[in-house]
Amino acid sequence: MKTFNINADCNPIVHYMVDIRSRLEAIGQMVDQGQYFTINRARQYGKTTTLHALEKYLQRDYTVINLDFQLLSSADFENEHTFVEAFSGEILDSVSDTDSLPAEIENQLKQFAGGRLENARLSRLFRCLSRWCDLSERRIVLMIDEIDSAANNQVFLDFLTQLRGYYIQKKKAAFHSVILTGVYDIQNMKRKFVTNDGHTANSPWNIAADFLVDMNFSTEDIRGMLDEYEQDYQTGMDTGKIAGLLYDYTSGYPFLVSKLCKILDEQTAGRPGFPDKRSVWTKRGISKAVELLLAEKIPLFESVIGKLRDYPELKSTLHALLFYGQNIVYNPDDSLIDMALMFGFVKIVENRVVLANRIFETRVYNYFLTTTDMQNTDLYRAALQNKSRFILGGRLNMQLILEKFTAHFDELYGERDKTFYEEEGRKLFLLYLKPIINGGGNYYIESHTRDTERTALIVDYGGEQFIVELKVRRGNASHTRGEEELLHYLEYYHLRKGYMLSFNYDQKKETGVKEIRLDDYTLIEAEV
Q1: What's the confidence (pLDDT) of residue 261?
Q2: DSSP 437-485
């Protein structure tokens, strides 16, 4: 049986994979047009898998040189001589078809690779490569993976300069197309090059075409992979529905999709409530897989949290976005947001900055909520001490949570001012909720509802779903809108009971919890 792969290159013979033929066709068109470009995406985004598949796809019409800069050491970038030696050796290893490598080119590359030429320089290497392009009956495509390994090396800057020069001077034979892959995009690559005098150099890669091919998995992509799995295991799952749920959590981030599928396939069956694979590939099973994933310490999450630790301004920006509903308009000149985009944990929606997917968002929420200062609050400790009261028979009592939160909040913070209610109220409820559902459920926020007035919180626990509207109350009209919005969500999620928590800084407010009926729906409304 095949498996879901989350490490390195995927192989369709042994791994369940999405069908990437449409992507290969789109990239192939760029190659046919002779474009030079960079496939820059965040870590674990399927770049290497795409490059290997692209090599096979292009070999019908081109001679393909596929190199990996991970295989070069820092010493190989020390100077031109060492780079030419290493680069030539990698080309010889890459070209398996000796008929595509003329004898004179092979001999010269062997001399370069053997270090037998004292005056081995990039200029001589490129004259050799140009000669090869001139002699070759087939057009030659150069692909280099993991170009980030070469960053901050002057010799790589010189290498790009040579590529640019041959590309511009059409009278010289040059590679038909050049594809570089890595995390850093063209704009950020220039920041990585630092000259000997400490100044940042401009990138010579301004010849590159924009790479606009979408490498996210769509719902249909995921469904195709699940259909193949279903043929093997006959679980009875609704592949379309499960694909949609996986997409909802991941927004199609390739690693996260594959990771959740791997958890569902290999780690979930046999746990309490999941006796077999049939019970796993369900909405409840996906909720469990998300819970397990969020509890893992994986390099991708460490990268996201590491950037927050390294860049306090970025941390403050995302904190304001998540907890205060602050609207962050995208500015392409903001280097911090630019970096967050490059590493893939934020995206731009309608010119606003948002977290890239629910998984990243919840992980960042958890990071903010589990700091030592937050866990030392009386509210957090109260929730932890009373956790057993809120869960009976494996079921979460959301109404009791609201009742107890209201009592604790008013006791601890009831006399605070308007600013405290607006900025801290929703954060404190999440802080109260987290230790209660930890180990049995998870939560996420509908990002498009997050603003300074309201937030729609979705809680999954024990196979049940709860919708909690968190609002800063500004008059009766605001409250009525909140009820209407909550009803809309209940209808969308096919639920009959919803919850509302209003933060009201009016000194004349009536705190407490009440139950009201609106049409066929029951609303549990709490006010603090």
Answers
A1: 98
A2: HTTTEEEEE-GGG-SSSEEEEEEEETTEEEEEEEEE--SHHHHHHHHHH
